[in-house]
């Protein structure tokens, strides 16, 4: 179908030859802050440089973004605790003298955490991780991350930091005024520092090790779905399931509630959706539409406003109808053989980017540590298995096995610059393909490959149960259509439990072109500005990006409003992914 409005050629060609950079701020921006010792106390010249977020700017809702990441705490108390842990745990076995004070702090900021590398006067180092307000619900987020790290260290061969001490409460006898985790500093360097200069064979060795780690994770079958906790940390009023004695001989760990569900209930005060843990796959799956139904019932006006951001002709009634249909469908899918086989409850690292993998500085094929397990949770394997972020297919339409990537058919007619770009794209694609083929070829990883290549028509209904932030119902209804059309082909029993009317289909397809065009504009703008929907930009690029956005917006208005007449200025504002320059 023809798009509702054309994509301006200016947007399609300008700046797109530049490499796209993931805008999610990783723990790689360093700010050395030398602590001046006074009477063996830890003195920070300007604590605000630690409390405030200083590693980037935002094109949208910047005040809110900064507020969510502004964390005050007792830095001197934290440093004193760190000194105690350094001496107790002998964090640097090469030094004989005890630490007496922290002499340097290096701040590394992430999307929802601060990591402080604390250097002692005897050369020892450790890391203090402080979750920001947007990291998750108080207590549960830190408690789960601590338990996950301790479980992996104690019960697996996966290299992770040692946890020395922590507080999952801002106020207790160890209080520093915020939750924290004191842990060992990862050995080696981040893979990000080595990856570009590594040979293909070296990269393959790293991928092979990651595949081994995923194999070990996939063999750990948990008793329920939820988050991992220390048993002593879960209050008695909350449900939990202890791990098997084989998996956890000392009986230290349990599967407890999902902290993401707890957080949603906290944000929507008064909403009481099921927070888990879930003993069965069926109860876990049912939670998703139930939670969305409760959210709509709690705040229908807010949901309608979200729907209106895409188009006023969408309604809460349509969303409720979708939820009812998904609710009636999921039990059938849960009982379907291929779904059941890939639904085992497993723990997974959801963000294996180059900054979260540490390698030996002399031998970068050796992984020394995997960090940032904060988002790890226990879910069905088919929801967990995915290409690790550092080998995700980029700039190339991924075709699953047995297809292989290749240079474009018109390669010989391309310019030299285009040929080089095509070669780089192919090289990246071959790395992605290597991960896929190695996962498939290894018998012990075959179930991961099955989950990785799982038919989207079967997994979509589980993950597309809620309205997305962009406010369009198109992806939700697409899920219903794809499944109903393939019902018999997929071997599902009986007839599909729902049927979309001709009127519903007509209304849906009238929105599809608009949705696709908007998505293309958003992706084009994101690529041109090298950001994503959050609008995060490095400090040094911020002013230039603001100016670039102004130019892109003016060109867009000229082409689709002033000359093309495809839409009015208000519609153009709604399509644009960021506040327009004249709104700022």
From TrEMBL:
Annotated ranges, domain Aminoglycoside phosphotransferase: 109-381
Coiled-coil regions listed in the entry: none
One Gene Ontology cellular component annotation held by this UniProt entry: mitochondrion
Record keywords, A-Z: Mitochondrion, Transit peptide
Localization, UniProt: Mitochondrion
Claim: Nucleus is one of the keywords in the record: no
Main location: mitochondrion
Short name of one Pfam family: APH
Keyword Ligase found: no
Similarity comment: family membership: Belongs to the AIM9 family.
Protein name stated in the entry: Altered inheritance of mitochondria protein 9, mitochondrial
Species this protein is from: Aspergillus sclerotialis
Phylogenetic lineage: Eukaryota, Fungi, Dikarya, Ascomycota, Pezizomycotina
